[in-house]
Amino acid sequence: MTRIAALLQKEFADLRHHPGLFIPPLFTAFVAIALPFIVAVVVPAVTGERLSDSSDFQIAVEMFRTQPITNGMDAEGAIQAWIFQQFLPLLVIAPVAASMSVAANAVVGEKQARTLEPLLATPITTRELLTAKILGSLLPALALTLGCFVIYAAAMAVFANPGVYRILLAPRSLGVFFLLGPLAALAALQLAVCVSSRVNDARTAQQIGVLVILPLAGALVAQLTGALMLTMPIVVGTAVLLAMVNVGLMVIGIRLFDRESILTRWK
Amino acid sequence: MNSPSTDRGLAAVGLTRRFDTRTAVQDVTFDLARGEIVALLGPNGAGKTTTLRMLAGLIEPSAGEVRLDGARVEPGRADRLRSRVGFLTESPGLWDRLTVRENLLVYARLHGLTPASTAVERALDTFAIADRAEEAAAVLSKGLKQRVAIARALLHNPDIVLLDEPTSGLDPESARGLRELILRLRDDKRAVLISTHNLDEVQRVATRVAVLRQRLLALDTPDALRAQLFGTRVRIELRGAADRFVPVVHDAGRGVAAQGRVLLVATHDPIHDTPALVRCLVEAGADIVSVTPEEPSLEDVYLRLVRQPAGRDPRLVGRSPGDDGSGPGDEGSA
């Protein structure tokens, strides 16, 4: 644990000394938060047309009026709640996608900077090294996700119809945010670190790592188009699946991390 | 295969490392005792860094073994070895964005030193880098980076120190400072192995020299290698042509060569033989200007070794510290 903490300290010090690294994640998070507000609040206000005037959202009205947490909402509020919930996975994906560059650079970056060999000359084990590297990108991603949640809720309380923010307190929303999100982030970042320990170029690691985001992005699109509804059983089922994937990735990651090849074959 | 003689320190026993079909290091055996400095010499690609990495527990040998205090380091259990070894890699490998202090603190914690900050303060003072502690590593000169890297390698007070080209690219003043530090390590009874191309440095600091070209070609004190490869010669400068005195020396049963006004005479024991040799020449009518023992440079020794055909001369391998106390002394003794 001490060695994991030591390397984590280095990762955070590195981030602290390189504040520019925070710009892409913060920008991505801002866009992810702003997008549903543009659809649900800004566009209706600018055009003067209420969402409830459109028959496209009738299904949302019906769906949300039956839920206890949104019970008693008017049609406009129910549609806003539906939109805010549909965009919720975007807030989970955005910080992970933004942290991908840190994870993809985790091992190959050390090798390219010639800092890996002295590090491997210490008693640190492969498990400790990989854990620290994964946590080094996961913890900032989770902190950003949590920050997004707080800002999202606060902005909903201020700009959306009264009571709409309560949709974030629904078990499904909490499950997406605090269960599915961290597990998906862990899987994605573990995979990126694994890739980072097998390629000899950070760009390649990043490009391969971004592929991990594709299934998550697909799930988001499916939800936005109504093809997939993240119900509570789906959230729990997916969380269990992701937990198993994470265990498997940790085992595979340790096996794939070949100290000798990294030291002797990478140039 | 020769057996290493020390049970305190580090030993390579028949170390071999293959990469696919290429053999980088083959059957290398030597020991590294506390209080000595062994210089590992060899041309580029000779296997020096691979040998150091095996000894540091970074890569495992394909055959043979590393012994620590006489006990074999089992495959996959090199963490104990790594905690005992201080390894200066070829490149300083500092985290550029972190300050000097932050770089050292991370390593102090990786080695489990408590309190880490005390160990770092001590290192900053010992290596005279305290005034640069808050600067980012990126802005340091090459010499300072190397000094920080050595401070990092020695943070956990290892008794075995492996240095891969420690003075490469350093200016003369920095290199001298580093050499003094290496000699201090020896005086602190640490076992030091240096891989280097700098023969002057070797001449100044090394107790023994190991010459590697995939195999170990030679391992001995610099003086012993000189004597074995070149013999000992006395250089006698005359006032006139030297060739007419060649038969005189030859008749005395010694190998001799004449070069202008100089006679080069082979001898096993210059202190014992030289007075008689001088008497013999004076009696033959030679006007002697000077008599000096001729010492081939370490470069001559090295070049002769690496240019010889593949294979090793068993006479040149296997001497251990204590067999011969004639290693060079401190800085400037050469």
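qc> DSSP finds eleven helices and 14 strands in chain B.
qc> done
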